[in-house]
Amino acid sequence: MKTAVAVVVALACLTRTLSANADLYLELVVNGVPTGLVINVVEQDGHYRLDPDDLRAARLPVAADATERVAVDQLEGVTVTYDALRQRLELAVPPAWLPSHTLRVGTARERTAPTISSGAIFNYDVYAAAPTGSATSVSLWTEGRAFGRWGTLTTTGLAQPAASSVRASGRGWLRYDTTWSLADEDRALTYAAGDVTTGALAWTTAVRLGGVTIARNFRVRPDIVTYPLPQFAGQAAVPTTVDLFVNGARVTSEAVAPGPFTINQEPFVNGAGTATIVTTDALGRQTSSTMSFYVTNALLQRGLGDYSVSAGAMRHGFGLRSFGYGAPAVTATGRRGLTRRLTVEGHAEATGMLGLGGAGVTVGAGRFGVVSFSDTVSRFDDRGGQQLAVGYGYTAPRFSVNLQRLQRSTGFADLTQVPTAGARAPLPRRMDQATGALNFGRRGGTLGVGYFGIDSADGRATRLLNVSYNRAVRERTTLYVSLTRDRAAAVSAQAQLTVSLGPQGNVSLVTTRGGGHAAVRTQYNRSVPTDGGVGWNIGYASGATPYRQVDASWRSAYALASGGIYGSGEAQTRWGSVAGSAVIMDGRVLPANRVSDAFVLIDTDGQPGVPVLFENQRVGETDRRGHLLVPWVNAYYPAKYQIDPLALSPDLRIGTVEQRVAVRARSGAVVHFPIAVSTSLLLSLVDASGAPLTLGRVALDRVTGQQAVVGWDGLVYLENPGERLDLHVAGAPACDVAPIDVTRLRRDGRSITLTCR
Question: What is the DSSP code string of 437-506?
């Protein structure tokens, strides 16, 4: 009792000493969060005075030229508490004084450098058709690719022995494109040479050149978010938990320190949305705030640039001639985000007789959508022209609208109008587009409206108005209705009822009426499974001349084969096709289904029958030489590849069972899983009396140099021993095992007792 009284008296004296005049060193706590600082606190004249450098270290606002101690208890909005028991000085300051911090919410986008391997691929598609009363025609489409660290070389073409337009070249072969490209992932750039396509904006037209291109390519950097992220701000006076709800669904729950905070949300929606921020402090008190936002990829992040520059000879007769190049031309396209709501654009084209330049802006109108405007002028054959384009777009969960108008004067021209050996199509003078959709919910369906108008250069006008409606009638049944009216007031209608049969496909019934004709079409379709199998399509359409269609497809591990018959009355066409690929990589030629973009070759060091998983889904087993081709990989996506070790023999030593790998576009990569056969021996060593050797002694195999520690009961584990075993066991006393043939040991069994003498 006397001891407790003494402690209380001592604390009271200490408190009185501080309140009179004291010079102490205390831990500084700000808004309930320890700063980790022990500072000098001077109590003078009943006030707590702190050195300004200590306040700066705690990231509290102090005048830059302040040198005298600051009486923090006299600052407006600040509460000071001295905790004598824990020797702490606790400050409660306004949250706005504290440093702000940013929370990044959304899908993690970590950069994964692509794995680059060398190889080649040959895609092919053979198609044959035999119409009634006509000769059979055969065509072969091909794509060849070679790739490595130096880039990718691609060439495509078509062989049609029966086509007169091709025979005229004397070779029966029509070349499409031949292009070399190299991606610079660090700078998000792509370099290309050969047959290239120029960059374009919404109000410009791309053209084909035989030349070179350098262009920004954000596809090679999926970790970069190109559009402005919605930001939600708040502040916390004490440590707080922040919950963010987007359109009623919680997307994150984060703990934040006291002070202002900003949440950069990578949205799960595109367009208009509503966000609610709920903060909960340690006592369970909650506050919430709701705000609207609008997200669009039509804008660029502030300071982010996108551009494309191309130079070369204009290509003509693509798809008709293998080589057709004309006048030299240069094009340049650029975009840059000036602010979160303003992106500027520019475009220029030039050739011998044409000069063109234009500028545009895309403006985010807050939560009311996006407005765009551009103005382009041209000079062609000493004639000037102008093009104006304006647009507006708005997207919300229940409603969306898109309005576009493009107007050209008579003298306007771009590179598509440069004279060539063939005829050119004059540019339309005006194009209008207005579309909208209204979503009534899951049971109410969706109503869509579209208007399209084109005024051609020769004065002809096209006007189309379309109204459509679709909804789910039942769980597996969908109804779609469409009405279209043209300028001549002719109306056509279509109604379609589709019933899903699950894995067995779907059945649809379509009724069409227009132009004085009516028809009913019935179709049963089953898609070909992506992992292999059979699919088919059966259709019948009534009318003056009934139409029939029957075809089937079979996908194997090596190709997709299809064939069928279609036609009306006596006019029938029988057809068949085979499409696939041949991949050359890792010293092998592997047949596979068509590889459209990137692919991966799994290598298990020659081990057959190893189960392989792609993103946790089984995709097959390695073949007899330890390879499995995954032909449908998305470029630059860091996909997860795994092997299943439970299905392997215990004799195998596995280096790794899981890897994340990204692959360059139109290339392939070898994903190597090291697997080696491990031969092991488990020996039981005893001394001359038959007693197990003592624990912890070290056994040395003089043949391989491998060392092993003697375990309980004299057990020794040796991995991959040589053909002979010659053991020396150190210790007191040291002993040796007579050399013995390892082959005989394995034949006798894996647990063998040997005597160490």
Answer: EEE--TTT-EEEEEEEEEE-TTS-EEEEEEEEEEEEEETTEEEEEEEEEETT--EEEEEEEEEE-GGG-E
B/e letters for 258-289, b = 16+ CB within 10 Å, e = fewer, are bbbbebebbbebebbbbbbbbbbbeeeeeeee
If one compares 261 and 598, the residue with the highest pLDDT of the two is: 598
Assigned token pair, 595: 């590889």
How far is residue 426 CA from its own chain's centroid? Answer: 39
Q: What's the mean pLDDT in 359-374?
A: 94
What does the angle CA 132 – CA 137 – CA 139 come to, to the nearest 5 degrees?
145
User: Which helix (H) or strand (E) covers residue 12, if one does?
Assistant: helix 2-20
Cis peptide upstream of residue 733 (ω within 30 degrees of 0) = yes
Cα→Cα distances 707→203, 218, 696, 699, 713, Å: 74, 53, 12, 6, 18
**Phi, psi dihedrals of residue 16, rounded to the nearest 5°:** -65, -35
Domains of the chain and CATH, by start: 2-93 (3.10.20.410), 227-295 (2.60.40.3110), 593-677 (2.60.40.2610), 680-755 (2.60.40.2070)
- Cα 607 → chain centroid: 32
Residue 647 backbone phi and psi in degrees, to 5 = -90, 0
- pLDDT tops 80 at residue 678: no
How far apart CA 5 and CA 8 sit, in angstroms, is 5
DSSP per-residue codes, 335-373:
EEEEETTEEEEEEEEEETTEEEEEEEEEEE-GGG-EEEE
Q: Are 706 and 718 in contact (CB under 8 A)?
A: yes
Residue 140 CB partners (closer than 8 Å, separation 6+): 124, 125, 126, 127, 158, 159, 160
Residue given tokens 């869509």 in the structure block: 448
| pLDDT tens digits for range 654-677 | 888 999 999 999 999 999 999 887
Q: Which long-range contacts (CB under 8 A, 24 or more apart) does 171-175 make?
A: 173/322, 174/319, 174/320, 174/321, 174/322, 175/322, 175/323
CA distances from 156 to 114, 121, 159, 174, 179 (A): 25, 12, 10, 9, 9
Of the ranges 154-163, 425-434, 500-509, 534-543, which one carries the lowest mean pLDDT score? 154-163
**Weakest-pLDDT range from 74-83, 172-181, 698-707:** 74-83
Mean predicted lDDT score pLDDT of the chain: 85
Torsion, CA 335, CA 336, CA 339, CA 340, rounded to 10? 60
pLDDT in the model for residue 531: 79
Q: How far apart are the first and last CA of the chain?
A: 73
* 632/624 Cα distance (integer angstroms): 22
Of the candidates 642, 654, 646, the residue with the CA atom closest to the CA atom of residue 616: 642
Q: Provide the 10 A C-beta neighbour count for residue 312.
A: 21
Is the C-alpha dihedral spanning 69, 71, 72, 78 positive or negative?
A: negative
Cα–Cα distance for residue pair 637/115, rounded to 1 Å: 11
The Cα 56–Cα 62 span in angstroms is 7
- Residue-wise pLDDT for 139-192, tens only, equals 999 999 999 999 999 999 999 875 444 444 445 889 999 999 999 999 999 999
Whether the CB-CB separation of 17 and 9 falls below 8 Å is answered with no
Of 18, 41, 21, nearest to 29 (Cα)? 41
Non-local (6+) Cβ contacts of 691 within 8 A are none
Characterize the bridge pairing of strands 724-725 and 461-474.
Answer: unpaired
**How many CA atoms lie less than 13 Å away from 548 in the CB half-sphere?**
10
Which value, to the nearest 10 degrees, does the dihedral of the CA atoms of residues 583, 586, 589, 594 take? -20
The 3-state DSSP class for residue 20 equals: helix
Q: What angle do CA 340, 224, 396 make, to 5 degrees?
A: 55
The three-state secondary structure class of 4 is helix
Q: Which positions ≥6 away from 25 have C-beta within 8 Å? A: 38, 39, 40, 41
Give pTM, 2 decimals.
0.80
